[in-house]
Every structure is written in C-alpha cells, then in structure tokens.
C-alpha cells in the first residue's frame, strides 16, 4: 500500500515539534518557516523535560510551548494519549521529533500514521540509538552523517526519507563529528519538511519515494 503524504489545500502545513533538549533542530525549522523556505508553520512545541531550552525557543517565537510531565501518567500509553490530545487540539498535521528522548508508542503512531518523523545523527541503519556519533568514531567508519526517517515502533528503524553524508577524519572525536553532523541536520530537516508540505512524499512499505 502506498501513502501520498502532505496532499492538502491549506497554505501552511501545521507542524508540532516534540523535543527534550536544547532544540537546535527546532530552531532550524522555525527559521526555515520564517524565511518561507517551506510553506509550513510550527504551531506547537511539547517537551517531557521542564527545563528543555526548546520550550524557551518556542516561547520567544510566540509559539505555544507545553511541558507534559511523564511522572503524572501511569504508563507510556497514557502519556502518549495526553500528547496526542494536545497535538490534535492545535490542528497539528505532521509531528517532528527533534531530540525527543522517548520512544513513540502505538497510541501516537495510530493517531499520526506515517506522519511522525525524526532526525538521527547517523546514516541509518548504521548506529541506531544513543551516542551514534561516538559509535561511528569507535567503529572506524570513513563516513557518517544524518538521516530523516518516518517513525515506527522500533528505535530508528522507520523508512528513510533523506540522508546526508559527513566524512569522518582520523582526528575526530564524538564532539567534533557531532558538530559537523549537526550542520547537516539543520539543512536536511527543513528540506524533508518542505517535501512533506509540497505533497511529494510517497511511502510504500519500507521505501519512500519523492515525486
């Protein structure tokens, strides 16, 4: 079965961003929207961390910023249901994970089928999970990079939308490689969102086509 995503009539694609940390990818998305590099708007930012700087970035831009405390919910499903309720209330059409440190479960996936995306600092399927840049340095690869992918129930296992390669130098450590990969993340994530907003993403099983 194929899914054509982003086919719509509204002028601005409504984005919701989930973030747990500083929100540098959130900032790149907001900047791209403000510069009209994509016809989209961040309408909501949610974090599971009360001190996440991503919330401050959103508030500074006049975007609703919501902290949802996982400790107030008995299960991941209950927490995800609360997140979904707020996303739907704000009319979010596409959910963007930007340094969101929680696995997305069935509740959210059912509410947004093939409409939750993530960016990961490695060339998936290599080096999923935490500390991908450290894994790349320790393994001795010559290239790493970043991947924008659709989220499924696994950890960094969903269909791949876009990738960007970054050379790994002999003197690289986790910090230096992370910095260069992050530059590509800030370019690649808005580009993937532009394709969604233009209705050019087609998902068929594990394969994503750009039309």
Automatic annotation (TrEMBL):
Annotated active site: 120
Family annotation (Pfam families): Formyl_trans_N
Keywords: Purine biosynthesis, Transferase
Domain Formyl transferase N-terminal, chain residue ranges per copy: 15-193
EC numbers, comma separated: 2.1.2.2
Positions contributing to (6R)-10-formyltetrahydrofolate binding: 76, 101-104, 118
GO biological process, one term: 'de novo' IMP biosynthetic process
Residues of the site described as Raises pKa of active site His: 156
Entry binding sites for N(1)-(5-phospho-beta-D-ribosyl)glycinamide: 23-25
Catalytic reaction annotation: N(1)-(5-phospho-beta-D-ribosyl)glycinamide + (6R)-10-formyltetrahydrofolate = N(2)-formyl-N(1)-(5-phospho-beta-D-ribosyl)glycinamide + (6S)-5,6,7,8-tetrahydrofolate + H(+)
Coiled coil region boundaries: none
Pathway annotation from the record: Purine metabolism; IMP biosynthesis via de novo pathway; N(2)-formyl-N(1)-(5-phospho-D-ribosyl)glycinamide from N(1)-(5-phospho-D-ribosyl)glycinamide (10-formyl THF route): step 1/1
Aminoacyl-tRNA synthetase found in the keyword field: no
Record-stated family: Belongs to the GART family.
Role according to the record: Catalyzes the transfer of a formyl group from 10-formyltetrahydrofolate to 5-phospho-ribosyl-glycinamide (GAR), producing 5-phospho-ribosyl-N-formylglycinamide (FGAR) and tetrahydrofolate.
PANTHER family: PHOSPHORIBOSYLGLYCINAMIDE FORMYLTRANSFERASE
Protein name: Phosphoribosylglycinamide formyltransferase
Chain's gene name: purN
């Amino acid at each position: 079965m194929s899914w054509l995503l982003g086919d719509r009539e509204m002028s601005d694609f409504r984005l919701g961003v989930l973030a747990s940390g500083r929100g540098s990818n959130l900032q790149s998305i907001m900047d791209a929207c403000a510069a009209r590099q994509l016809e989209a708007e961040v309408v909501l930012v949610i974090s599971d961390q009360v001190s996440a700087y991503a919330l401050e970035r959103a508030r500074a831009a006049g975007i609703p910023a919501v902290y949802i405390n996982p400790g107030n919910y008995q299960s991941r499903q209950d927490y995800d249901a609360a997140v979904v309720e707020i996303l739907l209330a704000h009319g979010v059409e596409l959910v963007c994970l930007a340094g969101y440190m929680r696995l997305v479960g069935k509740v959210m996936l059912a509410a947004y089928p093939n409409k939750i995306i993530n960016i990961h600092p490695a060339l998936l399927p290599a080096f999923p999970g935490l500390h991908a840049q450290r894994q790349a340095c320790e393994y001795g690869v010559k290239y790493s990079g970043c991947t924008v992918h659709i989220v499924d129930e696994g950890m960094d296992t969903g269909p791949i939308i876009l990738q960007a390669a970054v050379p790994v130098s002999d003197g690289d450590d986790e910090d230096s490689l992370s910095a260069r990969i992050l530059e590509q993340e800030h370019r690649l994530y808005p580009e993937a969102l532009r394709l969604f907003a233009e209705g050019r993403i087609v998902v068929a099983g594990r394969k994503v086509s750009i039309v």
